[in-house]
Specification:
Nuclear Transport Factor 2, Chain: A, alpha+beta, 19% strand, four-stranded antiparallel sheet, 159 residues
Amino acid sequence: MTAPAPPPGPGVAPPFAAPPTEGRRTRLWIGLGIGALAVVLCCGGGGSAVIGLAVTGVQAVGEQARTVTGDYYQALVERDYGRAYEQLCDDAQRRESQPEFERRAAAEPQVTAFRLGEVDAINLTVPVDVSLAGGDREQQQVSLGRDGQTGGVEVCGVS
């Protein structure tokens, strides 16, 4: 039998490489910085999206308000009182039937022209400059409301 080989001496290469120790803190801080940047981008993008949706929602309500109010007054100009009545909210229609509305609208001074003002999206109102038959002019305030079923905007009153 032969004797076992003596253990390796100094200067022998280890069987595995030692883990690097240089730059360890630098890599840690770079990684943390990239992670923080990703969080800021995600949260900032989400916040921007929420703000964008809110602005778009307000613009959509304003556009609907102008459209409904314009349709209502255009129907009055054309003496199509049935179409004007369709623009009214449920509460207004409960207060006054369509035949009653048509009689009242026909008896009032005829609307010949109108100009819509800026929509107040918070209070859901629209000022309207109205020209009447005979040359009179009026400033009217249209109050709007949301339809409970469709979510659309409807005319709830004129003062």
